[in-house]
Structure formats: C-alpha cells, structure tokens
Amino acid sequence: MKTPENFTISANNRIIDSSLYKVQTNSINNISKKSPVLIFAHGFKGFKDWGGFPFLCTILANSGFNVLSFNFSHNGVNAKQPLEFTRLDLFAENTHTIELEDLNAVIKYIPNIAVKYNIDINRIGLIGHSRGGGLSIIAAYENPEIKALASLAAVSDFMRYTDYQIKKWKEKGYLEIPNTRTNQMMRLNLTLLEDIEKNSSRLNILNAAKSLQIPFLIIHGKEDLAVNSADAEKIFSAANIKSVSCAKPMLKIIENTGHTFGTVHPFNRSNKYFDEVIRILTEFFKNNL
Q1: How confident is the model over 163-179, as pLDDT tens digits?
Q2: Rounded-to-integer distance, Cα 83 and Cα 73, Å
Q3: Is 65 exposed, middle or buried (0-12, 13-18, 19+ CB in 10 A)?
Q4: Taking all residues of the chain, what is their mean pLDDT, rounded to a whole number?
Q5: Residue 224 maps to which CATH number?
Q6: Is residue 199 part of a domain?
Q7: Half-sphere exposure (CA, 13 Å, Cβ side) for 251?
Q8: Exposure string (b/e) for 110-145, b if CB count within 10 Å is 16 or more?
Q9: Is residue 65 part of a domain?
C-alpha cells in the first residue's frame, strides 16, 4: 500500500492530522502535469487510517488523483497513537460545527500545497463517509472550490437520537455511546446536542443537498445497519430538485453489503463490494474533474 506524506493543518487553534497520497505518475511526461485532488472525510467513531480507508486512498492515487485524508481535530485519536482513541476528552467536546470548520479549513488549505505536489486547484473533489458524508454535502455547498462530490453511507440528518436519549442527555449533561470494537464508553457532552439545535439551519444536510450545483454521487450499502439506505434515498430526492441545467445526482445502492462495504478494522483485504465502490468512485471523478 502507498505510504502517504503526513503533515498537520492548523485551524482555530486546533490540529488536523493529515495524509497526502500522491498521484502515481506513469511517465516522465506526466511529472509536470497538474493533477486533481480528492479530500476524504471519515465518519463518527472513525479516523483517517481506519480499516480500508488507506487502501481506498492508495487505489485512487494510483488512478490519477492526489488524495488528502485527515482526522477531524476532535475525533479522539492523535498522531502519536493514530489507531487508538486516547483523547476521549476531545471526543466528548466535539460538535458538528467544529467538524465543519475543520473540513472547511482543509479545503482552504489546498492552495498552500498546490505547487509542491503539482495539484490543480481548479479540480478539487470531496468524498465523505457516514457522518463525514453529511458534513461533506454541507461543505460542498459552502465551498465553491469543490467541483465534484461523493458520499459513502452518508447520514441525511444529524439529529439521530431518541427522545429518551435526549431527555437523559439533558439531565446528565452528557450521553455515553459504546464502541463495541474497542469496548470503550465514549462520552458526548451536551454541547453536541446544543450545536445541532442552535445551528439547525446551517447543519441541515437535505437543504444543502437541494442547493448543490455540482456533480454528486451517492453510494450506500443496502444492508447498512448503522445508517439505513433510506438516508441515501432522502439525499438523492433532495439533490434531484433542481433545474434541468444543473448536474443531476447519481444514486448507487450496492446490494448485500453494509456500512463499511464489507471492510473491517484492522484491514485485512478488500472484497467485491468495496472494489465496486472504488471502481464507481474512480469513474465518477475521472468523468467530472
């Protein structure tokens, strides 16, 4: 697998650990040619080096794209222990607005590395998984630099909690979410709920989808137990409400696979479902960047 170049991006006194998978050049003539860049945003209880994400980034880099993968500043991991949730204090303080600010900062950072890595700043694509998919829809709406967007198993709404959970959350000041992989209880402070309620207009994923004017690919596993494939249908329906002159969204529901398309952490190998996701992504961005 390709070894990326690692660096940090600073935004609002927060550290965003990042990895750049450089485009594969096949000949001397291609060395001087500028290449597009894809930004990859992970989801809830995820991180940039989770499972098959590095494999995905490597294949895309081998297919002609620079790929910038990053950790949200409050995702709970850090550069010293990039595969472990050692900063549960930051995880507890996280909000969707913080993550959106992180993603926007990453997008705005691309010109700073464009010369060094021969990046075409007029061809920036965005990929988001799960909660990162919902954030990416909003970020694509807010940032005209994004020329094409793909969501993987994206949420259609950030308010994903029951009335009982919200009641207990407000009573205790926090909500605990189990991580079945690590056997950790991961706390969410009340600030996350308050952020959803206070910034409901900006954090409205479906409204952002309605306003997109760029090519948009929606991929979802039919057997997704974490985020139902109905979310993909909602996003597609919202994005499809536009004038004839605008790019129409594409919806790909992949049968017999779930939230991470058959991949696990630690990553052992790919499979036909994940390979299909990568094939569809590659074709989409080659056609639209």
Answers
A1: 999 999 999 999 999 99
A2: 14
A3: buried
A4: 95
A5: 3.40.50.1820
A6: no
A7: 16
A8: beebbeebbbeeebbbbbbbbbbbbbbbbbbbbeeb
A9: yes
Residue 20's pLDDT band (cuts 50, 70, 90): very high
Q: Tokens 């494999």 map to which residue?
A: 55
User: Range of 219's domain?
Assistant: 5-162+206-288
Tell me the per-residue pLDDT of 237-248, one tens digit each, with 9 for 90 and over: 999 986 555 678
pLDDT tens-digit profile of 196-215? Answer: 999 999 999 999 999 999 99
In contact, 61 and 21? CB cutoff 8 Å: yes
